[in-house]
């Protein structure tokens, strides 16, 4: 199912920091899932290339935020690191059902099984409303 998180608020309310916390939380969950998948794949004799690639994707999603901030944030009167742009982040998940080996005899909670079925495999970010004049220099005054 498609899910959405909308972060809105006044200038300086902490929207950017809230998004960072959400992404960190998702990355933490994905890290645990990838470790679990790695162990399951190893037990099943599956090579580790795919799991390593997924781990790299999670890191790239996290690393994209500071890169965007470097080009799109500016110091203002109210905030030393004010975002001068908006962004729409789509996280793309792979729907992989838990293997039949671990289903009925496993006493893990249903929420744990739900997490197993959605591994982060990509991201798409649209940036909009960039205040270009503030990126290249400060306005007079």
From TrEMBL:
One of its GO terms (biological process) is actin filament organization. It comes from the Eukaryota. The keyword Nucleotide-binding applies. One of its GO terms (molecular function) is actin filament binding. GO terms for cellular component: cytoplasm; membrane; myosin complex. Keywords: Actin-binding, ATP-binding, Motor protein, Myosin, Nucleotide-binding. InterPro entries: Kinesin_motor_dom_sf, Myosin_head_motor_dom-like, P-loop_NTPase. PROSITE patterns: MYOSIN_MOTOR (PS51456). ATP binds at residues 9-16. Residues 1-141 form the Myosin motor domain. Pfam families: Myosin_head. PANTHER family: DILUTE CLASS UNCONVENTIONAL MYOSIN, ISOFORM C, MYOSIN. Belongs to the TRAFAC class myosin-kinesin ATPase superfamily. Myosin family. This is Myosin motor domain-containing protein.
